[in-house]
Description:
Largest sheet: 9 strands, mixed
Structural class: alpha/beta
Number of strands: 11
Amino acid sequence: MNRNQVAAMFIGVLVCIPLLALYQFGFFKSTADWFAVLFARGFILPAGGLKQSVLLQYGYYTLMAFISAWVCIEMPSQWRRIAFLLGGTFLTATFACIMAMSGVLFEPISGSMALWFAGIAGIAVGGSVNAYRCHVMRDYFVGRLSTRVFEELADQNNPAKMTERREITVLTCRMLNHGELATGIEALQFEELATHFQRSISEFLIERGAYLDDCNARQVRVFFGFPLIDEHHALHAVQVAAVLRNHVANLTREIEQRFGKKAQIGVAFSTGSAVCGLFGVSHFESFSAVGDVIDFSTQLCVLNAEYGSKVLMSARTYALVKDNAEVRPMEMVSTVGSSQMSEVYELLAEKGTLPEPDIRARDAFWQGVVQYRKGDLKQALESFNNAAIEGREDAPLKYFLERVDLALKEKSSPAKETPKHSRKLAVT
């Protein structure tokens, strides 16, 4: 239970115990007798008269105490709280009349007392600084953060610290062939497919501490290290991405079984500096971040379609997590407008979880990439062949084998240009 639920439970107990004591000492007996006379004058009662149900009285005021405390803590508007209490009082009186016409004596005073006492206590708790901050922040973060992370964020004394420049890790999960899927099936089917993709990926990432920044039919983007400061944001992103591989594989199978289409889903994450804060106007305001690291994550994600890889990471991320992740290199890339090259790595698993055959294959693959970049094409071809595991399809390995074969053919034809070992990314 969260803090507000605990407070509501505590208030409910504090209200119910005195009311129970008053019942035991007969405080409400005269009140019940007065209502019995009133009902006899105002209604046509059953032949047997009215019979009081003590259990009904106990149960009603107990229920009203807990509900009133919870509603008045959670509801941000003071006028709505008062309206709720007045409405609850009216319903209690109406319930007493209905019970009387059914032959049951129900006095509404104890229920109304429980309603108002618990409601006033709830208003006092809900009107505190922390509760008010929680109400304000809920509009921005509910659905984007897990309950645990939201409570930690609401407990911070200075939420303004979320507006600053800081280093974060951005993870993007993208449906790489969304255009093909959108034109290959009916609009309603694609709507269901895209919604299933969005819900499955976003809920998976939010539950593991990520902040949901963007969620549309093409991609889901989350942040690690924002809005809460996390010194190990890159490591947490890698740990989540390693598990996300299997989740994406299962999701791909579900989509194929349900819609008869094979979705190609890629994941990528990058680490870098970004300006974080509240952006937008009116109802379109949201906490987000702006910076090259966000665009680079999207661009890396698109590269999965080229390599056939599942999860890619930037060089900065790898520098922070190299002791905790099993990876292999891809290519050197740069963004449009930048001459600086950056290594791209494929995440295979968390450190120490790869089987021995996979480690040997990874090392051979790594050696092949290095030899390919040096121009030692024959040695690179041998290393890539050694990286193959029998019975397993390896799309990135196939990609590099084709590159080496092409380079060997180009080398035998001097008039043709030797293929480049780097790639320039476009903004998408």
